[in-house]
């Protein structure tokens, strides 16, 4: 049972309008946003930040951003966000081999060195204490420019917020996210956990 019950999607009309963004990314409005709308300024600010972070202005693709989100969520243990991130990666055209082998991104041939650098950055930046170091920086600069690095860290930071929000709230997970979690992550032990 969640810490705070989500409100109906039509509770706040401005949030409802902004939340249409999630129909593209996930196919539904997440319960996390429906809970945030108890304070509409939070839900609206969050959606606008999400849209800004996920906008593509360089070579970081929408699919890679969602895989960065998955690595970050996996590092922090948020099962809700793991399922959402892998679902969004699928919806944004991540290669089937990458979806099936996300756990092995460091060694699987479907991942490029540029993608590995980005995903290792996500892992290092999501750890406590933070593990971003000179080696990570050097690897990033071989493949990405500073604007693209900012985009990546925007995703990592956004999911840092979401990981804390959803694990603390015990946000109820939506059926579509459960399907994606079971399909791509279940073989490695993913389950809903507290997100009933």
Automatic annotation (TrEMBL):
<dbReference type="InterPro" id="IPR003779">
    <property type="entry name" value="CMD-like"/>
</dbReference>
<dbReference type="Pfam" id="PF02627">
    <property type="entry name" value="CMD"/>
</dbReference>
<protein>
    <submittedName>
        <fullName>Carboxymuconolactone decarboxylase family protein</fullName>
    </submittedName>
</protein>
<feature type="domain" description="Carboxymuconolactone decarboxylase-like">
    <location>
        <begin position="40"/>
        <end position="120"/>
    </location>
</feature>
<dbReference type="InterPro" id="IPR029032">
    <property type="entry name" value="AhpD-like"/>
</dbReference>
């Amino acid at each position: 049972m969640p810490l705070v019950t989500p409100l109906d999607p039509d509770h706040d009309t401005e949030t409802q309008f902004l939340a249409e963004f999630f129909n593209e990314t996930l196919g539904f409005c997440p319960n996390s946003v429906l809970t945030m709308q108890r304070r509409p300024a939070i839900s609206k600010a969050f959606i606008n930040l999400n849209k800004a972070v996920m906008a593509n202005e360089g070579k970081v693709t929408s699919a890679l951003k969602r895989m960065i989100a998955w690595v970050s969520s996996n590092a922090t243990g948020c099962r809700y966000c793991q399922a959402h991130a892998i679902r969004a990666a699928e919806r944004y055209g991540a290669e089937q081999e990458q979806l099936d082998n996300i756990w092995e991104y460091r060694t699987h041939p479907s991942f490029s060195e540029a993608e590995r650098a980005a995903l290792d950055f996500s892992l290092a930046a999501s750890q406590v204490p933070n593990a971003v170091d000179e080696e990570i920086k050097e690897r990033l600069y071989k493949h990405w420019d500073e604007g693209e690095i900012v985009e990546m860290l925007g995703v990592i930071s956004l999911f840092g917020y979401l990981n804390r929000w959803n694990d603390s709230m015990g946000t109820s997970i939506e059926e579509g996210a459960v399907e994606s979690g079971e399909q791509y992550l279940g073989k490695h032990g993913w389950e809903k956990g507290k997100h009933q």
